[in-house]
Amino acid sequence: MAQPAWQEPDPLTVESAPVPEYGSGSLADLLPTLVAGQGVPGFTAAIPELTPADRNCVFLIDGLGWEQIKAHPDEAPFLHSLLPTSRGGTGRPITAGFPATTATSLASVGTGLPPGKHGLPGYSARNPETGELMNQLRWRPWVPPAAWQPYPTVFRLADAAGVRTAQVSAPDFERTPLTEVALSGGSFLGRLSGEERMDTAAAQLAAADRTLVYTYYSEVDGKGHRFGVDSDAWRGQLMYVDGLARRLAEQLPPRSALYVTADHGMIDIPFDEQSRIDFDEDWELRAGVALLAGEGRARHVYAVPGAENDVLAVWRDVLGEQFWVASREEAIAAGWFGPRIDERVHGRIGDVVAAAHDDVIITASVNEPNESAMVGVHGSMTPVEQLVPLLEVRS
Question: Is the pTM of this model over 0.85?
């Protein structure tokens, strides 16, 4: 029954948030499914719709969600034509995981684990050992990578089992801590241009009887952040990456499967006070808060000791009609970060976690000026951010 016009909408409940499909249809399930089909011990096919192949290639396009491909058939004719192939021919997307952000998603892809296990629960999070904010994309301040994320990547385990593995990406990414904890194992091949990456990925795919190749392109996301997904600059990047995907697909060696996916989608947020709530200028939201982490649509909030319940109450009261607002324990129990949480990860999750439902973000104009100026953003559990393609081409 519809609510009367005079009645205030009910606050969003924690239980109403659309939790990612961990264990059956999330980014963390992709590589385990592929290497299980290649006979790598210790893995099972978590995404049941996929058919095994001897040679598997994953092309991850940063920021290109399912909804963006659906909405742009003219700019992305090749990718759009592949929508019916997604998720093993079901024509359905998979989910990124929460938060829907690059550091978290790349760690989920490479380790085959949800955020609660691999321990990168957002763009930034508190380091419980030091009390400092840790930017998990840029790895600042530096912490020992193996201590922060101790699990071996799927690439390492596949390589040890005799599958030839390779990552083909920008040369600058070869020695980053995020690559080490998320995507290392086998060979890293740095290539500057998108065309070189596609050609190298195809060559690596053909280099052995069993291969696992990962390649990546970032500028769709970059243009979306700067100009928005409703911009000509973003559309130009979409046209370019559509050509890259076609180029790779046309070079697949026999017995290959190419999967085109993404780490998250993106949404443009207007520059007005109703759509952009500035934490640094809002005394209510700041009260009792020691640290603010995450990003505009997926915030970790760390309270001053003893103020946790008060901060939760205020954030829920102020934002509860626009955000899913949960305590740490509520978010964990609801499965936002996966079915299980490692003890070392527990304190990295905010005392309060706020995930956007409406077209709104929480900026921090003083402490996060660059992030606050972004047009296109992501992070939450809405379909436009959470749903990512799993487009398939086989040879």
Answer: yes
